[in-house]
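Example record

Each entry pairs one chain with its bound ligand, adenosine-5'-diphosphate.
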Amino acid sequence: MSSGSAWITRSNVAVAEQPTTDDDTSATPSNANDPALAAQWARIRSRLQSEVGDVEYRSWLRQMSWAGIDGDEVTVLLPTRFLRDWVRTHYGEKITSHWQQENPVVRRVDIRVGKGRMPDEKLYGGLTESLASPPLPAPVPPHRAPSTNPPRVAEEMSAPLDPRFSFDSFVVGKPNEFAYACARRVAEHPGSKEFNPLFLYGGVGLGKTHLMHAVGLELTRRGARPATVAYMSAEKFMYRFIAAIRSQQTIEFKDHLRSVDVLMIDDLQFLIGKDNTQEEFFHTFNALVDAGKQIVVSADKSPSDLSGLEDRLRTRLGCGMVADLHATTFELRISILEAKATRAQATVPGRVLEFLAHKITTNVRELEGSLNRLIAHANLFNRPITLETAQEVLHDLLKAHDKRITIDEIQRRVAEHYNMRIGDMVSARRARAVARPRQVAMYLAKQLTSRSLPEIGKKFGNRDHTTVMHAVGRVTELMTSDSTFAEDVDLLRKMLES
Ligand code: ADP
Ligand code: MG
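C-alpha coordinates for the complex follow.
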Protein backbone atom coordinates (compact mmCIF):
# COMPACT_ATOMS: atom_id res chain seq x y z
CA MET A 1 0.00 0.00 0.00
CA SER A 2 2.76 2.44 0.92
CA SER A 3 4.69 1.48 -2.19
CA GLY A 4 1.41 1.68 -4.07
CA SER A 5 1.15 5.41 -3.50
CA ALA A 6 4.84 6.05 -4.17
CA TRP A 7 4.43 6.52 -7.92
CA ILE A 8 1.64 8.92 -7.34
CA THR A 9 3.58 11.26 -5.09
CA ARG A 10 6.53 11.12 -7.48
CA SER A 11 4.39 12.45 -10.28
CA ASN A 12 3.44 15.99 -11.09
CA VAL A 13 -0.04 15.46 -9.85
CA ALA A 14 1.26 14.99 -6.34
CA VAL A 15 -0.77 17.84 -4.92
CA ALA A 16 -4.06 16.50 -6.11
CA GLU A 17 -2.95 13.08 -5.10
CA GLN A 18 -2.02 13.56 -1.47
CA PRO A 19 -4.33 11.39 0.57
CA THR A 20 -7.09 13.72 1.58
CA THR A 21 -8.47 14.11 5.02
CA ASP A 22 -12.00 14.44 3.72
CA ASP A 23 -12.68 10.82 4.25
CA ASP A 24 -16.22 10.54 2.98
CA THR A 25 -16.86 7.24 4.66
CA SER A 26 -19.24 7.55 7.53
CA ALA A 27 -20.22 4.59 9.64
CA THR A 28 -18.39 1.49 8.51
CA PRO A 29 -20.66 -1.51 8.23
CA SER A 30 -19.10 -4.38 10.06
CA ASN A 31 -19.60 -7.25 7.63
CA ALA A 32 -16.40 -6.57 5.68
CA ASN A 33 -14.82 -9.35 7.74
CA ASP A 34 -17.44 -11.91 6.79
CA PRO A 35 -15.39 -14.61 5.02
CA ALA A 36 -18.03 -15.26 2.35
CA LEU A 37 -18.29 -11.59 1.47
CA ALA A 38 -14.54 -11.14 1.61
CA ALA A 39 -14.19 -14.03 -0.82
CA GLN A 40 -16.68 -12.38 -3.17
CA TRP A 41 -14.73 -9.16 -3.02
CA ALA A 42 -11.49 -11.04 -3.68
CA ARG A 43 -13.05 -12.70 -6.73
CA ILE A 44 -14.27 -9.37 -8.03
CA ARG A 45 -10.82 -7.84 -7.66
CA SER A 46 -9.29 -10.76 -9.40
CA ARG A 47 -11.79 -10.54 -12.25
CA LEU A 48 -11.16 -6.85 -12.60
CA GLN A 49 -7.47 -7.47 -12.71
CA SER A 50 -7.74 -10.02 -15.47
CA GLU A 51 -10.16 -7.86 -17.42
CA VAL A 52 -8.27 -4.61 -17.31
CA GLY A 53 -4.76 -6.07 -17.27
CA ASP A 54 -1.97 -5.60 -14.79
CA VAL A 55 -0.90 -2.15 -15.84
CA GLU A 56 -4.27 -0.56 -15.43
CA TYR A 57 -5.13 -2.58 -12.38
CA ARG A 58 -2.05 -1.58 -10.49
CA SER A 59 -2.38 2.01 -11.53
CA TRP A 60 -5.97 2.58 -10.62
CA LEU A 61 -7.61 -0.28 -8.82
CA ARG A 62 -5.04 -1.86 -6.61
CA GLN A 63 -5.56 0.59 -3.80
CA MET A 64 -9.24 -0.10 -3.63
CA SER A 65 -10.51 -1.42 -0.37
CA TRP A 66 -14.01 -1.92 0.84
CA ALA A 67 -16.11 -1.28 3.87
CA GLY A 68 -18.68 -4.04 3.51
CA ILE A 69 -22.31 -4.21 2.50
CA ASP A 70 -25.03 -2.12 4.02
CA GLY A 71 -28.49 -3.15 2.87
CA ASP A 72 -28.20 -3.42 -0.89
CA GLU A 73 -25.23 -1.09 -1.14
CA VAL A 74 -21.54 -1.91 -1.18
CA THR A 75 -19.06 0.78 -0.23
CA VAL A 76 -15.77 0.75 -2.10
CA LEU A 77 -13.00 3.00 -0.84
CA LEU A 78 -10.07 4.74 -2.47
CA PRO A 79 -7.39 6.70 -0.68
CA THR A 80 -7.60 9.92 -2.67
CA ARG A 81 -10.21 12.05 -4.36
CA PHE A 82 -8.43 11.81 -7.67
CA LEU A 83 -8.43 8.02 -7.60
CA ARG A 84 -12.01 7.95 -6.43
CA ASP A 85 -13.15 10.11 -9.36
CA TRP A 86 -11.12 8.14 -11.83
CA VAL A 87 -12.40 4.79 -10.61
CA ARG A 88 -15.97 6.07 -10.46
CA THR A 89 -15.95 7.24 -14.07
CA HIS A 90 -13.91 4.47 -15.61
CA TYR A 91 -14.70 1.38 -13.61
CA GLY A 92 -17.85 2.23 -11.65
CA GLU A 93 -20.19 0.31 -13.92
CA LYS A 94 -17.94 -2.69 -14.13
CA ILE A 95 -17.51 -2.91 -10.36
CA THR A 96 -21.26 -2.59 -9.86
CA SER A 97 -22.10 -5.26 -12.38
CA HIS A 98 -19.50 -7.65 -10.92
CA TRP A 99 -20.94 -7.13 -7.49
CA GLN A 100 -24.44 -7.72 -8.74
CA GLN A 101 -23.33 -10.95 -10.34
CA GLU A 102 -21.49 -12.13 -7.24
CA ASN A 103 -24.16 -11.19 -4.78
CA PRO A 104 -27.83 -10.86 -5.72
CA VAL A 105 -28.53 -8.64 -2.75
CA VAL A 106 -26.31 -5.88 -4.12
CA ARG A 107 -27.93 -3.20 -6.22
CA ARG A 108 -25.60 -0.24 -5.85
CA VAL A 109 -21.95 0.43 -5.29
CA ASP A 110 -20.88 3.63 -3.64
CA ILE A 111 -17.30 4.65 -4.43
CA ARG A 112 -15.85 6.98 -1.83
CA VAL A 113 -12.68 8.35 -0.34
CA GLY A 114 -11.52 6.40 2.67
CA LYS A 115 -9.51 3.49 3.90
CA GLY A 116 -11.03 0.13 4.59
CA ARG A 117 -10.16 -3.46 4.62
CA MET A 118 -7.55 -4.62 2.14
CA PRO A 119 -7.93 -8.20 0.93
CA ASP A 120 -6.36 -10.85 3.06
CA GLU A 121 -3.31 -11.66 1.00
CA LYS A 122 -2.64 -14.96 2.70
CA LEU A 123 -6.13 -16.19 2.25
CA TYR A 124 -6.72 -14.92 -1.24
CA GLY A 125 -3.16 -14.60 -2.44
CA GLY A 126 -3.89 -16.66 -5.49
CA LEU A 127 -6.83 -14.54 -6.45
CA THR A 128 -5.51 -11.07 -5.98
CA GLU A 129 -2.44 -9.34 -7.27
CA SER A 130 0.86 -9.87 -5.57
CA LEU A 131 1.72 -6.91 -3.41
CA ALA A 132 5.38 -7.80 -3.57
CA SER A 133 5.81 -6.61 -7.14
CA PRO A 134 6.41 -2.91 -7.64
CA PRO A 135 3.54 -0.76 -8.87
CA LEU A 136 3.49 0.17 -12.52
CA PRO A 137 2.85 3.66 -13.77
CA ALA A 138 -0.62 4.72 -14.82
CA PRO A 139 -1.40 4.49 -18.51
CA VAL A 140 -2.65 8.02 -18.85
CA PRO A 141 -2.11 10.11 -15.76
CA PRO A 142 -2.10 13.79 -16.67
CA HIS A 143 1.29 15.53 -17.04
CA ARG A 144 3.37 12.53 -16.19
CA ALA A 145 7.05 12.48 -16.87
CA PRO A 146 8.35 9.48 -18.86
CA SER A 147 8.49 6.51 -16.60
CA THR A 148 11.56 4.70 -15.46
CA ASN A 149 9.54 1.62 -14.75
CA PRO A 150 7.74 0.97 -18.06
CA PRO A 151 4.73 -1.29 -18.40
CA ARG A 152 5.42 -4.49 -20.24
CA VAL A 153 3.01 -3.64 -22.98
CA ALA A 154 3.55 -6.64 -25.17
CA GLU A 155 2.76 -9.22 -22.55
CA GLU A 156 -0.71 -8.07 -21.80
CA MET A 157 -2.14 -7.14 -25.11
CA SER A 158 -5.33 -9.17 -25.15
CA ALA A 159 -8.09 -9.02 -22.60
CA PRO A 160 -9.08 -12.48 -21.41
CA LEU A 161 -11.92 -14.18 -23.22
CA ASP A 162 -14.97 -14.90 -21.15
CA PRO A 163 -15.74 -18.62 -21.45
CA ARG A 164 -19.44 -17.90 -21.01
CA PHE A 165 -19.52 -16.00 -24.30
CA SER A 166 -19.29 -19.00 -26.60
CA PHE A 167 -21.12 -19.77 -29.83
CA ASP A 168 -22.97 -22.49 -27.94
CA SER A 169 -24.48 -20.06 -25.47
CA PHE A 170 -25.45 -17.55 -28.18
CA VAL A 171 -29.12 -17.86 -29.04
CA VAL A 172 -29.69 -17.40 -32.75
CA GLY A 173 -32.80 -15.82 -34.21
CA LYS A 174 -33.76 -13.75 -37.22
CA PRO A 175 -32.27 -10.47 -35.93
CA ASN A 176 -28.79 -11.90 -35.35
CA GLU A 177 -28.48 -14.95 -37.60
CA PHE A 178 -26.44 -13.19 -40.24
CA ALA A 179 -23.96 -11.71 -37.76
CA TYR A 180 -23.73 -15.09 -36.06
CA ALA A 181 -23.06 -16.89 -39.35
CA CYS A 182 -20.36 -14.38 -40.28
CA ALA A 183 -18.69 -14.72 -36.89
CA ARG A 184 -18.74 -18.51 -37.16
CA ARG A 185 -17.31 -18.35 -40.62
CA VAL A 186 -14.46 -16.12 -39.43
CA ALA A 187 -13.72 -18.47 -36.55
CA GLU A 188 -13.54 -21.38 -38.98
CA HIS A 189 -11.60 -19.67 -41.78
CA PRO A 190 -9.87 -16.61 -40.40
CA GLY A 191 -8.35 -14.24 -42.93
CA SER A 192 -10.51 -15.13 -45.92
CA LYS A 193 -10.93 -12.15 -48.15
CA GLU A 194 -14.70 -11.60 -48.29
CA PHE A 195 -14.91 -11.65 -44.50
CA ASN A 196 -11.97 -9.42 -43.77
CA PRO A 197 -12.52 -7.22 -41.92
CA LEU A 198 -15.65 -8.45 -40.26
CA PHE A 199 -17.53 -5.43 -39.02
CA LEU A 200 -20.27 -6.16 -36.47
CA TYR A 201 -22.58 -3.39 -35.47
CA GLY A 202 -25.74 -2.85 -33.47
CA GLY A 203 -27.18 -1.24 -30.35
CA VAL A 204 -26.08 -1.79 -26.77
CA GLY A 205 -26.51 -5.26 -25.34
CA LEU A 206 -27.35 -7.06 -28.57
CA GLY A 207 -24.42 -9.47 -28.49
CA LYS A 208 -21.47 -7.85 -30.28
CA THR A 209 -18.99 -8.51 -27.50
CA HIS A 210 -20.42 -11.97 -27.00
CA LEU A 211 -19.84 -12.85 -30.65
CA MET A 212 -16.30 -11.50 -30.63
CA HIS A 213 -15.39 -13.56 -27.59
CA ALA A 214 -17.04 -16.55 -29.27
CA VAL A 215 -14.77 -16.09 -32.30
CA GLY A 216 -11.71 -16.01 -30.05
CA LEU A 217 -12.81 -19.00 -28.01
CA GLU A 218 -13.58 -21.03 -31.09
CA LEU A 219 -10.25 -20.18 -32.67
CA THR A 220 -8.37 -21.33 -29.60
CA ARG A 221 -10.55 -24.42 -29.34
CA ARG A 222 -9.46 -25.23 -32.87
CA GLY A 223 -5.85 -24.98 -31.86
CA ALA A 224 -4.84 -21.33 -32.35
CA ARG A 225 -2.29 -20.23 -29.80
CA PRO A 226 -3.95 -17.75 -27.45
CA ALA A 227 -1.09 -15.33 -28.00
CA THR A 228 -2.05 -15.02 -31.65
CA VAL A 229 -5.63 -14.00 -30.96
CA ALA A 230 -5.95 -10.52 -29.53
CA TYR A 231 -9.22 -9.08 -28.31
CA MET A 232 -9.51 -5.67 -26.71
CA SER A 233 -11.84 -2.73 -26.49
CA ALA A 234 -10.97 0.34 -28.53
CA GLU A 235 -10.62 2.19 -25.26
CA LYS A 236 -8.00 -0.25 -24.08
CA PHE A 237 -6.27 -0.05 -27.42
CA MET A 238 -5.95 3.67 -26.83
CA TYR A 239 -4.73 3.34 -23.26
CA ARG A 240 -2.13 0.82 -24.28
CA PHE A 241 -1.03 2.91 -27.18
CA ILE A 242 -0.62 5.96 -24.95
CA ALA A 243 1.12 3.90 -22.28
CA ALA A 244 3.50 2.62 -24.96
CA ILE A 245 4.29 6.14 -26.11
CA ARG A 246 4.93 7.28 -22.56
CA SER A 247 7.21 4.42 -21.81
CA GLN A 248 8.89 4.65 -25.21
CA GLN A 249 7.75 1.21 -26.18
CA THR A 250 5.81 2.05 -29.29
CA ILE A 251 7.91 -0.21 -31.46
CA GLU A 252 7.24 -3.12 -29.17
CA PHE A 253 3.56 -2.25 -29.15
CA LYS A 254 3.39 -2.12 -32.94
CA ASP A 255 5.43 -5.28 -33.37
CA HIS A 256 3.30 -7.18 -30.99
CA LEU A 257 0.03 -6.07 -32.55
CA ARG A 258 1.32 -6.92 -35.97
CA SER A 259 2.38 -10.37 -34.89
CA VAL A 260 -1.12 -11.60 -34.07
CA ASP A 261 -3.21 -13.63 -36.50
CA VAL A 262 -6.54 -12.26 -35.39
CA LEU A 263 -7.11 -8.79 -33.99
CA MET A 264 -10.52 -7.95 -32.55
CA ILE A 265 -11.32 -4.41 -31.47
CA ASP A 266 -14.58 -3.86 -29.63
CA ASP A 267 -16.58 -0.62 -29.58
CA LEU A 268 -14.63 1.22 -32.21
CA GLN A 269 -16.87 4.28 -31.88
CA PHE A 270 -14.72 5.10 -28.87
CA LEU A 271 -11.97 6.20 -31.25
CA ILE A 272 -14.05 9.05 -32.63
CA GLY A 273 -12.16 12.24 -31.95
CA LYS A 274 -9.01 10.38 -30.87
CA ASP A 275 -7.02 11.17 -33.96
CA ASN A 276 -3.63 9.76 -33.06
CA THR A 277 -5.04 6.49 -31.87
CA GLN A 278 -7.17 6.24 -35.00
CA GLU A 279 -4.12 6.78 -37.12
CA GLU A 280 -2.25 4.07 -35.27
CA PHE A 281 -5.16 1.70 -35.60
CA PHE A 282 -5.40 2.45 -39.30
CA HIS A 283 -1.75 1.48 -39.84
CA THR A 284 -2.05 -1.67 -37.76
CA PHE A 285 -5.21 -2.53 -39.64
CA ASN A 286 -3.56 -2.16 -43.04
CA ALA A 287 -0.47 -4.08 -42.03
CA LEU A 288 -2.54 -6.98 -40.76
CA VAL A 289 -5.01 -7.14 -43.63
CA ASP A 290 -2.17 -6.93 -46.14
CA ALA A 291 -0.55 -9.87 -44.41
CA GLY A 292 -3.76 -11.88 -44.70
CA LYS A 293 -4.52 -11.65 -40.98
CA GLN A 294 -8.08 -11.38 -39.72
CA ILE A 295 -9.61 -8.24 -38.23
CA VAL A 296 -12.91 -8.17 -36.41
CA VAL A 297 -14.33 -4.84 -35.32
CA SER A 298 -17.53 -3.89 -33.54
CA ALA A 299 -19.25 -0.55 -33.25
CA ASP A 300 -22.62 0.89 -32.40
CA LYS A 301 -23.18 2.09 -35.98
CA SER A 302 -22.39 0.99 -39.50
CA PRO A 303 -19.11 2.21 -41.01
CA SER A 304 -20.90 4.79 -43.13
CA ASP A 305 -22.72 6.19 -40.10
CA LEU A 306 -19.63 6.44 -37.95
CA SER A 307 -19.05 10.06 -38.75
CA GLY A 308 -16.00 11.32 -36.96
CA LEU A 309 -13.87 8.39 -38.05
CA GLU A 310 -11.37 9.27 -40.69
CA ASP A 311 -12.73 8.64 -44.19
CA ARG A 312 -9.97 6.29 -45.26
CA LEU A 313 -10.50 4.16 -42.17
CA ARG A 314 -14.25 4.07 -42.68
CA THR A 315 -13.79 3.04 -46.27
CA ARG A 316 -11.50 0.19 -45.33
CA LEU A 317 -13.77 -0.96 -42.55
CA GLY A 318 -16.62 -1.30 -45.01
CA CYS A 319 -14.55 -3.33 -47.46
CA GLY A 320 -15.05 -6.75 -45.95
CA MET A 321 -18.24 -8.07 -44.44
CA VAL A 322 -20.56 -5.76 -42.58
CA ALA A 323 -23.12 -7.50 -40.38
CA ASP A 324 -25.86 -5.83 -38.42
CA LEU A 325 -27.23 -7.13 -35.11
CA HIS A 326 -30.83 -5.97 -35.30
CA ALA A 327 -33.00 -5.16 -32.33
CA THR A 328 -34.33 -8.37 -30.78
CA THR A 329 -37.81 -9.63 -31.56
CA PHE A 330 -40.19 -10.92 -28.94
CA GLU A 331 -39.53 -14.49 -30.11
CA LEU A 332 -35.77 -14.12 -29.79
CA ARG A 333 -36.10 -12.62 -26.34
CA ILE A 334 -38.23 -15.57 -25.26
CA SER A 335 -35.68 -18.03 -26.65
CA ILE A 336 -32.84 -16.24 -24.88
CA LEU A 337 -34.73 -16.26 -21.59
CA GLU A 338 -35.59 -19.94 -21.96
CA ALA A 339 -31.96 -20.78 -22.67
CA LYS A 340 -30.73 -18.79 -19.69
CA ALA A 341 -33.34 -20.26 -17.35
CA THR A 342 -32.42 -23.78 -18.44
CA ARG A 343 -28.76 -23.05 -17.93
CA ALA A 344 -29.49 -21.75 -14.44
CA GLN A 345 -31.64 -24.84 -13.79
CA ALA A 346 -34.49 -22.63 -12.70
CA THR A 347 -38.19 -23.19 -13.23
CA VAL A 348 -39.65 -20.02 -14.61
CA PRO A 349 -43.27 -20.07 -15.75
CA GLY A 350 -43.91 -19.18 -19.40
CA ARG A 351 -46.03 -16.23 -18.34
CA VAL A 352 -43.13 -14.71 -16.46
CA LEU A 353 -40.80 -15.16 -19.43
CA GLU A 354 -43.38 -13.51 -21.66
CA PHE A 355 -43.78 -10.69 -19.19
CA LEU A 356 -40.02 -10.03 -19.17
CA ALA A 357 -39.71 -10.35 -22.94
CA HIS A 358 -42.54 -7.90 -23.31
CA LYS A 359 -41.22 -5.37 -20.82
CA ILE A 360 -37.49 -5.37 -21.45
CA THR A 361 -36.99 -4.97 -25.10
CA THR A 362 -33.85 -3.11 -25.98
CA ASN A 363 -30.99 -4.76 -24.19
CA VAL A 364 -30.28 -8.46 -23.71
CA ARG A 365 -27.96 -7.67 -20.81
CA GLU A 366 -30.84 -6.15 -18.88
CA LEU A 367 -33.12 -8.97 -19.86
CA GLU A 368 -30.61 -11.45 -18.52
CA GLY A 369 -30.00 -9.33 -15.43
CA SER A 370 -33.68 -9.22 -14.59
CA LEU A 371 -34.04 -12.98 -14.97
CA ASN A 372 -31.01 -13.52 -12.73
CA ARG A 373 -32.48 -11.21 -10.17
CA LEU A 374 -35.73 -13.17 -10.15
CA ILE A 375 -33.92 -16.47 -9.81
CA ALA A 376 -31.69 -15.17 -7.02
CA HIS A 377 -34.69 -13.77 -5.20
CA ALA A 378 -36.58 -17.05 -5.50
CA ASN A 379 -33.60 -19.00 -4.18
CA LEU A 380 -32.97 -16.61 -1.35
CA PHE A 381 -36.53 -16.70 -0.06
CA ASN A 382 -37.23 -20.21 -1.22
CA ARG A 383 -40.32 -19.08 -3.09
CA PRO A 384 -41.45 -20.05 -6.56
CA ILE A 385 -41.23 -17.45 -9.31
CA THR A 386 -44.62 -16.05 -10.21
CA LEU A 387 -45.85 -13.10 -12.21
CA GLU A 388 -46.57 -11.28 -8.97
CA THR A 389 -43.10 -11.76 -7.52
CA ALA A 390 -41.62 -10.74 -10.89
CA GLN A 391 -43.57 -7.49 -10.83
CA GLU A 392 -42.58 -6.87 -7.25
CA VAL A 393 -38.89 -7.74 -7.54
CA LEU A 394 -38.39 -5.85 -10.78
CA HIS A 395 -40.54 -2.91 -9.85
CA ASP A 396 -37.81 -0.25 -10.03
CA LEU A 397 -36.26 -1.64 -13.17
CA LEU A 398 -39.56 -1.75 -15.00
CA LYS A 399 -40.41 1.75 -13.90
CA ALA A 400 -37.12 3.02 -15.25
CA HIS A 401 -37.90 1.29 -18.51
CA ASP A 402 -41.29 2.82 -18.84
CA LYS A 403 -39.74 6.21 -18.35
CA ARG A 404 -37.25 5.74 -21.10
CA ILE A 405 -39.66 6.23 -23.98
CA THR A 406 -38.65 9.47 -25.66
CA ILE A 407 -40.73 12.05 -27.45
CA ASP A 408 -38.58 11.57 -30.56
CA GLU A 409 -39.43 7.91 -30.58
CA ILE A 410 -43.12 8.62 -30.13
CA GLN A 411 -43.08 11.09 -33.03
CA ARG A 412 -41.26 8.62 -35.24
CA ARG A 413 -43.56 5.70 -34.46
CA VAL A 414 -46.72 7.75 -34.81
CA ALA A 415 -45.56 9.29 -38.09
CA GLU A 416 -44.74 5.82 -39.43
CA HIS A 417 -48.06 4.48 -38.29
CA TYR A 418 -50.06 7.22 -40.02
CA ASN A 419 -47.75 7.30 -42.97
CA MET A 420 -46.85 10.96 -42.64
CA ARG A 421 -43.55 12.79 -42.76
CA ILE A 422 -41.78 13.04 -39.42
CA GLY A 423 -41.20 16.72 -40.24
CA ASP A 424 -44.92 17.33 -39.96
CA MET A 425 -44.76 16.55 -36.26
CA VAL A 426 -43.14 19.94 -35.82
CA SER A 427 -44.50 21.78 -38.86
CA ALA A 428 -47.23 24.41 -38.79
CA ARG A 429 -49.51 22.47 -41.17
CA ARG A 430 -53.04 22.19 -39.89
CA ALA A 431 -54.59 19.76 -42.36
CA ARG A 432 -56.51 17.04 -40.52
CA ALA A 433 -54.27 14.32 -42.01
CA VAL A 434 -51.30 15.69 -40.11
CA ALA A 435 -52.96 17.51 -37.23
CA ARG A 436 -54.70 14.43 -35.82
CA PRO A 437 -51.60 12.19 -35.72
CA ARG A 438 -49.70 15.09 -34.19
CA GLN A 439 -52.33 15.28 -31.45
CA VAL A 440 -52.04 11.54 -30.90
CA ALA A 441 -48.28 11.89 -30.53
CA MET A 442 -48.73 14.70 -28.01
CA TYR A 443 -51.24 12.60 -26.10
CA LEU A 444 -48.83 9.66 -26.00
CA ALA A 445 -45.97 11.92 -24.97
CA LYS A 446 -48.06 13.05 -22.01
CA GLN A 447 -49.04 9.48 -21.12
CA LEU A 448 -45.73 7.73 -21.62
CA THR A 449 -43.08 10.23 -20.61
CA SER A 450 -42.60 12.34 -17.53
CA ARG A 451 -42.31 15.54 -19.58
CA SER A 452 -44.39 18.57 -18.69
CA LEU A 453 -46.89 20.15 -21.09
CA PRO A 454 -44.58 23.08 -21.98
CA GLU A 455 -41.70 20.65 -22.60
CA ILE A 456 -43.87 18.58 -24.88
CA GLY A 457 -45.07 21.68 -26.72
CA LYS A 458 -41.48 22.71 -27.27
CA LYS A 459 -40.68 19.36 -28.90
CA PHE A 460 -43.61 19.77 -31.28
CA GLY A 461 -42.35 22.81 -33.14
CA ASN A 462 -42.40 25.18 -30.18
CA ARG A 463 -46.12 24.96 -29.61
CA ASP A 464 -47.78 26.44 -26.58
CA HIS A 465 -48.63 24.19 -23.61
CA THR A 466 -52.32 24.98 -24.11
CA THR A 467 -52.11 23.36 -27.55
CA VAL A 468 -50.79 20.19 -25.93
CA MET A 469 -53.52 20.33 -23.32
CA HIS A 470 -56.12 20.68 -26.04
CA ALA A 471 -54.62 17.72 -27.95
CA VAL A 472 -54.68 15.49 -24.86
CA GLY A 473 -58.30 16.41 -24.20
CA ARG A 474 -59.33 15.90 -27.81
CA VAL A 475 -57.70 12.48 -28.09
CA THR A 476 -59.20 11.33 -24.79
CA GLU A 477 -62.62 12.43 -26.02
CA LEU A 478 -62.25 10.71 -29.37
CA MET A 479 -61.09 7.51 -27.72
CA THR A 480 -64.34 7.24 -25.79
CA SER A 481 -66.52 7.98 -28.81
CA ASP A 482 -64.65 6.10 -31.56
CA SER A 483 -63.57 2.56 -30.74
CA THR A 484 -61.50 2.08 -33.91
CA PHE A 485 -59.54 5.20 -33.09
CA ALA A 486 -59.13 4.01 -29.50
CA GLU A 487 -57.77 0.67 -30.67
CA ASP A 488 -55.36 2.46 -32.92
CA VAL A 489 -54.00 4.61 -30.12
CA ASP A 490 -53.78 1.60 -27.80
CA LEU A 491 -51.85 -0.30 -30.40
CA LEU A 492 -49.40 2.56 -30.73
CA ARG A 493 -49.01 2.73 -27.00
CA LYS A 494 -48.34 -1.01 -26.82
CA MET A 495 -45.76 -0.78 -29.58
CA LEU A 496 -43.99 2.02 -27.78
CA GLU A 497 -44.07 0.23 -24.45
CA SER A 498 -42.92 -3.09 -25.77
P1 ADP B 1 -22.96 -5.63 -26.83
O1 ADP B 1 -21.50 -5.89 -26.87
O2 ADP B 1 -23.61 -5.67 -28.17
O3 ADP B 1 -23.33 -4.39 -26.08
P2 ADP B 1 -22.96 -8.05 -25.29
O4 ADP B 1 -22.33 -8.97 -26.24
O5 ADP B 1 -22.12 -7.56 -24.16
O6 ADP B 1 -23.64 -6.82 -26.03
O7 ADP B 1 -24.27 -8.76 -24.71
C1 ADP B 1 -24.88 -8.37 -23.49
C2 ADP B 1 -25.30 -9.59 -22.71
O8 ADP B 1 -26.37 -10.22 -23.39
C3 ADP B 1 -24.21 -10.63 -22.59
O9 ADP B 1 -24.30 -11.22 -21.32
C4 ADP B 1 -24.53 -11.63 -23.67
O10 ADP B 1 -24.11 -12.92 -23.31
C5 ADP B 1 -26.03 -11.55 -23.73
N1 ADP B 1 -26.56 -11.81 -25.08
C6 ADP B 1 -26.73 -10.91 -26.08
N2 ADP B 1 -27.24 -11.51 -27.17
C7 ADP B 1 -27.39 -12.81 -26.86
C8 ADP B 1 -27.87 -13.96 -27.56
N3 ADP B 1 -28.32 -13.87 -28.81
N4 ADP B 1 -27.86 -15.14 -26.90
C9 ADP B 1 -27.43 -15.23 -25.64
N5 ADP B 1 -26.97 -14.21 -24.92
C10 ADP B 1 -26.95 -13.00 -25.51
MG1 MG C 1 -19.97 -4.76 -26.08
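The CA atoms of residues 185 and 448 lie 43 Å apart.
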